[in-house]
Amino acid sequence: MPLESFLPGFETHDIETAGARIHLATGGSGPPLLLLHGHPQTHLTWHKVAPRLAERFTVVAPDLRGYGDSEKPDGGERHAHYSKRAMAADQVEVMRRLGFERFAVVGQAVSTCWSVEPLRSRRSASEFS
What pTM did the predictor assign? Predict the structure, then answer.
């Protein structure tokens, strides 16, 4: 089924980050809003709410590293390539590439909240590096 069936008005993109190629859908206009899915889902988890959110926000809905159509790199030593910091860094880099230094984040599950923990104390993407 084409994306238009699930996320009308959205476009898909693949963005190369330092750690992985991240697949995502974007749509709408307004303040940037990053939607992060939980385990074991994909960006399509948001298909019922993303179009409505896109009426007020620029919605960015990625597949996290290792999920959906995003790249699935090896785990590395001690599974470091899937650490909270590594996965959060992917999302900061995605948002920067889309032109957003500051953005809101919504997580769908507890596992998503853990993956963005490194972002909590940051005021902008530039403070992450």
Answer: 0.85
